[in-house]
Each structure stands twice: as C-alpha cells, then as structure tokens.
Amino acid sequence: MDSSHTPSLPPDVSVVVLCAEWCTQCRAFREVADSLPAESLRWVDIEDEGLDADELEITAFPSVAILRPAGVLRYLGPVRADLEGFLAAVGQLHRLPERAVPETLRGVLSP
C-alpha cells in the first residue's frame, strides 16, 4: 500500500470495528482493515458480545469507533467496504464530537 494513503492516527488511538457476523459489508470491510497498518485494530461482533446496537447508537454495519485511553471515542459510523471510504472517514475524524465510551463497550474492550 502507498504510505501516502495510510491514515495518520496518534499512537495512543485504537480503531474498533463494530460488526455482525451476518453482515456482508462487515466481511467485505475485513479485507480492507487487514490491509491497514493498524496494530490496535479490534473487531467486535456486537451479537457475540451481547451488546445492543441501539445503546451504542449504531445505525448500520460496519461502524468504526476511534478510542483514546482517556475513555473518549469518536464514531466514524458506517464506512464503505473500501480503503478510500475508510481513509475519507478517518480524514474527517477531527470534525466529530467526542463521546464517553459506553460502559458496556468499555467492558468488552478492557484487557
């Protein structure tokens, strides 16, 4: 991959893909995500983890959340299953409001 297209995220950031096994767009996005140099990328199948999409304010899959250690997240929301769509969403990260990580999601993400 051309490094000029690599998303530049601070090293303290984690990328969380909120997905569902039945979702064909999630499976397609997995190929895109696997090509990213994100060591902190995490897949969370909300059904396997017993999470509620409404509580997490997820309206479509896959939804991507960017987390910081201080417990702040920004939802990129649903992303297209292609590298350009993901990079475009990451490029808008600074425009998104910060939100507290819901306790149910924090429990799934804790080590």
UniProtKB/TrEMBL annotation:
InterPro entries (alphabetical): Thioredoxin-like_sf
Protein name (record): Thioredoxin domain-containing protein
Top-level taxonomy: Bacteria, Pseudomonadati, Pseudomonadota, Betaproteobacteria, Burkholderiales
Species of provenance: Hydrogenophaga intermedia
